[in-house]
């Protein structure tokens, strides 16, 4: 996919931010992107099923999904070409070590405007969005694009910052101030937005907080 980009576009901001950060991203995010591994363990990917990660970054999550569900076909998109260059390098090793015969298909794409056809797919059984909605300005449009790309009976799995609702106020305010420096905005209306869409389509929603509200996990299950 060819993106129309201006200097001030979201894509350019992400590329500028991650041009150098991508080399240390996984190391520095290891301890505070809480709940990602829980989300992956609960994916329940069927044998031969398709998994797309929206905002796949360095490919860290896709590598873990490949090892946990070796029969799955994997796909990833990110708006940052810089991050995808790291993902390609990381995921190439899956073939070298024999962990996965088919390497993930990666595309530079906008989370708010993509389709399965860009990956030569008709839809996805699982879609993962891990700590990306808090960085996407039009985050509800990204949710809509993901839901539209699900196969019947497929599920959307989201891990992201919560509202720190049970943390001391000072700790929560300090975290949010720090996140703003990196263009990260936790979405207080995430549960409401997902529930509205579930009610409208007959889907089911599982939503829970981890770490006293530090992180939120959601599973949106599409109707068959």
Automatic annotation (TrEMBL):
SUPFAM superfamilies: S-adenosyl-L-methionine-dependent methyltransferases (SSF53335). Residues 52-156 form the Methyltransferase type domain. InterPro entries: Methyltransf_12, SAM-dependent_MTases_sf. Gene3D superfamilies: Vaccinia Virus protein VP39 (3.40.50.150). Pfam families: Methyltransf_12. PANTHER family: METHYLTRANSFERASE. This is S-adenosylmethionine-diacylgycerolhomoserine-N-methyltransferase. It comes from Pararhizobium capsulatum DSM 1112.
């Amino acid at each position: 996919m060819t993106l129309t980009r201006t200097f001030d576009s979201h894509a350019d901001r992400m590329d500028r931010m991650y041009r150098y950060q991508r080399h240390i991203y996984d190391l520095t995010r290891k301890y505070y992107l809480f709940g990602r591994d829980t989300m992956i363990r609960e994916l329940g990917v069927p044998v031969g099923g398709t998994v797309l990660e929206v905002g796949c970054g360095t490919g860290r999550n896709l590598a873990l999904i490949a090892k946990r569900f070796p029969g799955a076909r994997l796909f990833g998109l990110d708006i940052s070409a810089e991050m995808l260059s790291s993902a390609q390098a990381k995921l190439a090793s899956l073939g070298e070590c024999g962990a996965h015969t088919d390497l993930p298909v990666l595309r530079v794409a906008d989370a708010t405007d993509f389709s399965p056809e860009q990956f030569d797919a008709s839809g996805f059984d699982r879609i993962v969005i891990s700590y990306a909605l808090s960085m996407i300005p039009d985050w509800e449009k990204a949710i809509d694009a993901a839901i539209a790309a699900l196969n019947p009976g497929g599920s959307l799995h989201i891990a992201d910052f919560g509202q720190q609702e049970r943390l001391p106020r000072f700790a929560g305010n300090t975290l949010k101030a720090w996140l703003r420096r990196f263009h990260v905005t936790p979405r207080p209306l995430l549960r409401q937005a997902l529930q509205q869409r579930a009610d409208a389509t007959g889907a089911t929603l599982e939503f829970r907080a981890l770490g006293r509200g530090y992180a939120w996990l959601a599973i949106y299950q599409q109707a068959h």
